[in-house]
Design a protein that fits this description.
Layout: H1 3-18, H2 22-38, H3 48-60, H4 65-84, H5 111-126, H6 134-150, H7 154-158, H8 163-167, E1 171-175, E2 181-185, H9 188-202, H10 225-238, H11 248-261, H12 266-273, H13 278-281, H14 285-299
Antiparallel strand pairs: 1-2
Helix pairs in contact: 1-2, 2-4, 5-6, 6-9, 6-11
Amino acid sequence: MNSQAAIEAFLEMMSAERGASANTLDAYRRDLQEAHGDMTGGLADADAAAIHAYLESVAARGFAPSTQARKLSALRQFFRFLYGEGWRTDDPTGTASAPRRTAALPKILSEAETGRLLDLAAAEAANPPPGVAPVAAIRLHALVETLYATGLRVSELVALPLSVALRDDRFFVVRGKGGKQRMVPLTDGARRAMKTWLDARAAGKSTADSAFLFPAASASGYLPRQAFARELKALAARAGIASSKISPHVIRHAFASHLLQNGADLRAVQQLLGHADISTTQIYTHVLEERLVRLVNDHHPLAD
């Protein structure tokens, strides 16, 4: 069987039938191509022994358990596809087991640290520091305010359409993973930052006509998420926050954790984050546990 043709057919199915994003397809392609290159007879014709040998080599190279599990998941879905299409009569991943994973708590910022980051972004938008262009400071303020107000994935944030800011609504609909839509809120601070950014954006001759809220001269037409991540780390460093502690995803975690700390329901947070399964949102249960302990200590008559 031609492994390359089988991989392309699998990726086409994931795109057409399951609505996989470009980033997801790229990840599947990398994992499957790596496995294919590691196997003498090619991936599509691999037997269980070859799969086990490959997984052992992945573990021996020191990959994290989460990465090992992701690679195994890609192989399982690939071979289930081949079996379902009648191209194989067996699934060689059937006896493979994923490595044990410890549940890592998400990195988060405290409310005070987040406030410091937002305050500095607002101050720099009004008075940029040396080496930071005024338009870049205004854009970064709008990005950070919007990210913390909505909990968007960074890929959703940088690709927002211009219409989100033009409507000036308190809520807007975003298209997330698998093409699923959800409604997310905008705080007054985020709306004001967007308005300021719109004025600065309109002055840019090369991007003023773009359909994206955060346009850029890139292949996608909008600000690359890596560029935003670099600007965010630099902002954090200027705010006295370790750059290793910050990323766009950490701000998303802060959004969820701070909502739960202040009384939000886990199901509501699940919907705002766009998680298809509540089990994904349950990484934040430690926040709920802390809140319940505090509630009992503060209000139970025998707490003293």
